[in-house]
Every structure is written in structure tokens, then in C-alpha cells.
Design a protein that fits this description.
The protein is of the alpha+beta class. It contains 8 helices and 9 strands. The chain has a domain of 165 residues: NADH Oxidase, CATH 3.40.109.10. The strands form 2 sheets. The protein has a 5-stranded mixed β-sheet with strand order 3-4-2-1-9. A 4-stranded antiparallel β-sheet has the order 5-6-8-7, with helices on both faces. Helix 1 crosses helix 2, helix 2 crosses helix 6 and helix 3 runs antiparallel to helix 6. It is globular. The two termini are 33 Å apart. The structure holds flavin mononucleotide.
Length: 310
């Protein structure tokens, strides 16, 4: 979220431990749900790094129940060369980014959508694709009513907190920051995407109703669904997310992500009861082909890593 990079790695003998860095947890993310999903994405990156060395990773989730911030311990297991799929995902790491502007029209290439669904299942989550028509209308109606409610209380403590955090984590053009959301991630114009789902980070006051007042919906709208509402489910959902995003980016498909409406229990239960009955909705995704790439800043490895290999 907001490119906070809320993780830390510790080298512990032959293993690497992944910790949640709670100093980077957003105040609006009270349960740490978004922080742990983000850490799950980092965990998938770590697993891929082990694969690039020619080993299958060994992964223990929450290996020490007395340390809740210790999310995973990863080691190198049996030797096995990387597959072509994994190599393509690894090559996509530098250019994958969250896309907050319009997509090219048209469907996703080939069988990509089915492969993304399979990726989610393989990681212990689900990608619920929202069909055009009644399902999309139901989703946008839920979101539109959430956004109307939000507009009624623009000075509520929660709204002020959200805006303060956006301000804290976004940067101006030319900023050298290696975390936070860069200026180029802002949409090009306020009118660019009427009819798409509301964007939390960059709410430009568009019409969130249905049908859209202009511009087509994105090629694919989907919900990332976790099995349950617990830390392990979130960590698995985060790994699923990164696996899907990297596979998609390897075919020049990028995603816009949206989570703020899902911080509301009421929105979650409405989405769950009408669209994702088999699990807990975590994140809204919009996917489509994009031909440009702006890599997002990352903190240097030295700032994230502690400990020595034995
Ligand atoms: C759990 C989670 C929730 C997110 N919610 C939003 C969101 O509401 N709006 C948005 O613009 N981006 C959202 N993002 C995208 C992040 O802002 C983005 O991943 C982060 O800034 C890093 O940038 P990158 O994806 O380009 O590497 C979310 C990401 C995660 C992991």
C-alpha cells in the first residue's frame, strides 16, 4: 500500500526470515491486513529469488507463534532448475508496476486470465472475475453507495487520516524517494477513467455511478478473495497477488489495485454475499494491456536486511 514496503528481511543461518515492519503500517490499516498482504507479495518475490538460484524454496509461515511479526522463514530446498514461466516472471519484476490510468481496449492475451485464476488457487486464494453486465453493476452500485456515504462525511476522523497518509506517502515530480507513490503514478487527467472503480489514492472526483458516464470499463475487473479473515489467509493472498501481477506483467498486462472500500465491514459483507460467496474479499483489481512502463522506487537491499549468513 502506498509503496510503504512494510517488510524487513533477516538472514538467519541458511534461512531468510521475513518480518512485518509495523513502523510502516498505515494507521487506517488497523488490523494490519494490507500490511500482511503486501508482505505476502514480498514473500513471493523471495521465493522467486530462491528459484532463480536453482532451488525449490522451503517456506514456513508464522514459524514462531511467540513472534507475530515474523511472517515466514524461507530456505533453499532441493535443487531444481527454474521453469520458463518462472524466468518470465522474474524478468517482469523490474517493470511491473501498479497502473492508475486507462488500459488499451480488448481482452487479455490468450489464456492469461485462466492462468491468473490458476495462480491464485495454487497459492491458496481465489481470483473472482466480475462479469460484465449484472455483476459489474452490482459491484459498482456497492462502491457508489460507499463513496456517497464517504462524501457525506469528508471531515470524519477516518477520512482525514486517509488523506494525511496519502499526503505523507506521495511524492512530487523529481523526488528521489525510494518509497511512497511517485508523481508519474498519478492519472494523466481527471476525466480519464470515468466509469472505472474509484481509486483511493488518487480520487479525482469522478462519477462513480453506473452506467459509466464516459470511457469503457477496464478489460477485466476482479476481486482477490482469501480463504479466511486471518493473518495466514492474508499472507497467502499476498503471494497469490504477486504471482498474478508478475505473470500478467510478463505479457504487458498491468493492474490497478483498490482496497479502501474493503476497509468497510459493510462493503466487504455486501461484496461477499452478492459476488464472492466462497471467501473473504481483499482487493479489487482492474487488469488490462498497457504498453508503457514506469518502474516504482524500491528501498535498497541494505536498508531492508539485517543479520549475517552463517
Ligand atoms: C493490499 C494493497 C492494497 C492496495 N490498495 C491500493 C489502492 O487502494 N489504491 C491504489 O492506487 N493502489 C493500491 N495498491 C497499490 C500500491 O499502492 C502499490 O502496490 C505500491 O504503491 C507499490 O507500487 P507498485 O505496485 O507500482 O510496485 C495496493 C496494494 C496493496 C498490496
Amino acid at each position: 500500500m502506498h509503496n510503504t514496503q512494510p517488510w524487513r528481511f533477516t538472514v538467519s543461518g541458511p534461512a531468510i526470515e521475513l518480518y512485518a515492519d509495523v513502523s510502516r503500517q498505515l494507521m487506517e490499516d488497523l488490523t494490519g491486513r494490507e500490511m500482511i498482504i503486501s508482505c505476502g507479495a514480498a514473500l513471493f518475490g523471495l521465493r522467486l529469488a530462491v528459484r532463480s538460484l536453482g532451488y525449490q524454496p522451503t517456506v514456513e509461515l508464522f514459524p514462531d507463534p511467540s513472534q507475530r511479526r515474523l511472517l515466514a522463514r524461507v530456505g533453499a530446498g532441493r535443487p531444481e532448475p527454474m521453469t520458463a514461466d518462472e524466468r518470465a516472471m522474474l524478468q517482469a519484476v523490474p517493470h511491473r508496476h501498479t497502473h492508475r490510468d486507462a488500459f488499451e481496449p480488448g481482452p487479455l492475451p490468450g489464456d492469461l486470465l485462466q492462468r491468473l485464476r490458476d495462480d491464485a488457487v495454487a497459492e491458496g486464494a481465489t481470483l473472482a472475475v466480475i462479469g460484465a453486465g449484472p455483476e459489474y453493476q452490482r459491484l459498482t452500485a456497492i462502491l457508489a453507495s460507499w463513496s456517497r456515504w464517504r462524501d457525506l462525511y469528508p471531515t470524519s476522523p477516518a477520512e482525514i487520516q486517509t488523506r494525511a497518509e496519502i499526503f505523507r506517502w506521495t511524492h512530487e515530480t523529481g523526488s528521489q524517494a525510494r518509497d511512497g507513490v511517485p508523481a508519474h503514478a498519478f492519472p494523466a487527467s481527471a476525466g480519464r477513467a470515468a466509469g472505472r472503480l474509484p481509486q483511493r489514492d488518487f480520487d479525482l472526483g469522478r462519477d462513480w455511478g453506473f452506467p459509466p458516464s464516459g470511457g469503457p470499463p477496464p478489460p477485466v475487473t476482479a476481486v482477490l478473495v482469501a480463504h479466511g479473515e486471518d493473518e495466514e489467509s492474508w499472507l497467502r493472498a499476498g503471494q497469490a497477488l504477486q504471482r498474478m501481477l508478475l505473470r500478467a506483467a510478463s505479457q504487458w498486462v498491468f493492474a490497478g489495485l483498490q482496497t479502501q472500500p474493503l476497509q468497510s465491514t459493510s462493503v466487504r459483507s455486501q461484496i461477499r454475499s452478492s459476488l464472492t460467496p466462497t471467501g473473504s474479499p481483499q482487493l479489487l483489481l482492474e487488469l488490462g494491456v498497457v504498453r508503457s512502463s514506469h518502474p516504482t522506487g524500491r528501498r535498497p537491499a541494505g536498508d531492508l536486511t539485517t543479520g549475517e549468513a552463517r
